[in-house]
Write a sequence for this structure.
């Protein structure tokens, strides 16, 4: 059974950083792609970036370039997302998701329960 | 930028059929995936590759995709189907996934 267990809620000040973890189980960690998707209050889903642990390859959405870093720890099957220079508009629920990716198809097969991040000014 | 257009809301009576669309020029050339998000919960994949269902998803959920519109159909709608529904594709030009704006399904 696939599980993605995320770290708990965070409250941060504007200008600081947050690091959210996602511990995975079920399947071979290194053979998958993992993504982070966020959802601001009352808003839709927004993809932030992805990592392929086997190759440590990362790709980020342009709007987060330079502010987000996604990493993976093979020894604990955990994926991390760090967002820097936080702004109040970064207040959102952050989801990690395991991806099914092949030529012509990329979708979010399994999701964590989400981590609420609140940024105050 | 790549935009997928969904109606903000769809309403349907229990037992009826709900149709949720996802539009973009030539979307029929993409694989479209659909997610259900119940209030306060994480999204759940309900349709992938236009019309396939993951294990455990009822047959009442079906998808299609042609030309400029992809469609999610929910047959025999139940109260528990009340949720937000998102379509998603892979944008080959930007090399990243894109979500539609979401559709709130209300069961009357």
């Amino acid at each position: 059974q696939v599980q993605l267990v995320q770290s708990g809620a965070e409250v941060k000040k504007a200008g600081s950083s947050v690091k959210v973890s996602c511990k995975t189980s079920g399947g071979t960690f290194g053979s998958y792609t993992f993504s982070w998707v966020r959802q601001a209050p009352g808003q839709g889903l927004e993809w932030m970036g992805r990592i392929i642990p086997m190759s440590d390859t990362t790709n980020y959405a342009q709007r987060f370039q330079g502010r987000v870093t996604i990493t993976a720890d093979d020894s604990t099957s955990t994926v991390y997302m760090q967002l820097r220079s936080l702004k109040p508009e970064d207040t959102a629920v952050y989801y990690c998701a395991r991806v099914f990716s092949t030529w012509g198809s990329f979708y979010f097969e399994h999701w964590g329960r989400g981590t609420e991040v609140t940024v105050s000014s | 930028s790549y935009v997928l257009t969904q109606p903000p809301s769809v309403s349907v009576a229990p037992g009826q059929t709900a149709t949720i669309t996802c539009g973009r020029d030539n979307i029929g050339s993409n694989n479209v995936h659909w997610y259900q998000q119940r209030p306060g919960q994480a999204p759940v994949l309900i349709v992938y590759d236009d019309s396939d269902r993951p294990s455990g998803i009822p047959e009442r959920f079906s998808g299609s995709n042609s030309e400029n519109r992809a469609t999610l159909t929910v047959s025999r709608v139940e109260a528990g189907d009340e949720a937000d529904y998102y379509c998603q594709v892979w944008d080959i030009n930007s090399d990243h996934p894109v979500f539609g704006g979401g559709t709130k399904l209300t069961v009357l």
Remarks:
- The mean pLDDT of chain B is 96.
